[in-house]
Please model this.
Amino acid sequence: MGRKSIDFQPYKRQVTAWFNNGLTIKEIIQEFEIKYQWKPAERTFKRTLQEWGLQKQKRVRENGTISEELKEEIQILFFQFNSTDQNICDKLQQKGFNISRRQLQETRLHMGLKRRTTTPEEKQEQINDIRAALEKEFSESGRLGELGRRYIHENVVDEQGKFFPRFVRMLLPFVSQILTYLREALFKIYQEFFPAAVHRRTFQARRKKGEFIVYGPNQVWSIDGHDKLSRWGIHMYGGIDGYSRYMTWYHVGWYGSTAISTLIQYLRVVRKLGYVPRVIRADRGKEVPLLSGAHWTLVRAAYNNEDGSPVEFGDCFYYGRSMDNTRIEQWWGQLQKSCLGLLQSLFERMEFHRLWVIHDLASEIALLAVYMPIVRKEVDIFVTRWNKHYIRPQRDRANSVRGRPWENYFTPNPDFVSQWGIVVDNELLTDIEALFEDDDIDQYLPEATFIWCEEFLTNVGLDRTKEDDHDWPYVEAYNQLRTAIQIELDNGNPQGFSLAPTPPAGGLAEVHDRLARIRGFPAQGELENAVRGGDIHREGPDEVLNFSNAAQDVDEGENSESDPEG
Model:
């Protein structure tokens, strides 16, 4: 049985009285425990007060000066998310600061946070300053070679501000200078280093593209895997919101594209968000059946059609060709050009020179031990940058959504856009999760093998946070580890080296039988029949998705904390 959500509604009048009398949240919880003989969790209690609109106004100024709390919030939004003044103002007001946009602009300028320069002298000084700093960055980091005009600016900001927000005040003088660099100046130097990439991106921009029309966040999620690194044991899977283009989830792992793994990934993101999308779009990969069944189950438990009939499979899960699943396919293409292409090229060269041999245990363990954390970090950096980058308006596309993905997903304009997410049945979700609580999809090496490899790499001086040989990054440490593992294997494998176990391919029927005992989960035959009717037939990538049900606002439940900073 799942954990029941707490209903504070019967206590609202008393809690409101305590709040209006000036008691702090901790004092209210103490009074609550004394009066009602039980103590609510502080985090849950804070969320309840926020839902009731009980939030104390925070001070903008203290003793005539700008409050330190306000300064820190402005710095985080300005540096980490590169938000506009209006978005910063909206977020500050949501957090209890009584501040107008004009006050924010005055405060920001007083803090020395400028967005642009004006005089020719300042512009030339910027060009001279950044050239020396970026020459080293461009020459060492091939990852920048496929970034566009806007991404290159945000990449430099992110690289210099990677310790935000913890050290944001300490780094403020340096990062403030970096942030004021003109995008045009950065791109001018970028063109000198990567002329072929500029030409290639210009050619791609001229291609005729279709139009993907979705009416709000969580109306459609596009999900799919990425197999460019699967030959070397690194699998990726993810999902993107069709409206905002916000990456709702991504996973990099040893068996990331199996049916059990993708199901667990889906359950994780649903638990984090507290709701499910109206429709999921996928191809007919072997990794999809369990996920599609879970999604259908959660949707059917949440609502029926307008005529009272249960939701059919084809109403909430669309199958189609992978090439027509444009949102996620385009995103994987951007990721491949940004960072994965370099890693794929490295692995291919390693295999060509027989530094890595397929089905060779020492090679496979060493590559995962050295490069899996690097791949995960690269993907994490790209996702963070993607979710906060600005999407420009597009000519001849009236339905194109402009803005930053995380803002369009979490805080769309309620006057024009509805939230299509369906609040999840927490009890049902918990029952499904319980079947897989012992499955660790993040593990890529057995614990003993992982610890031995990490200790060895530490002893040989591997530091993944530092730049290494640009052509053969970290290969020296990889070769040393591979040789050491091979010696142990030749001596009878006393350390018990092995790869992490993968779910048995023939065990899906047994897993489905267990799932079918969950309330509302379709039997295997029922799901198979429903899947046959779940196809969508399109002439091309263009789509217009229409639903008979009106958009449903998401009522944030106990597990619906939508924190884009996470």
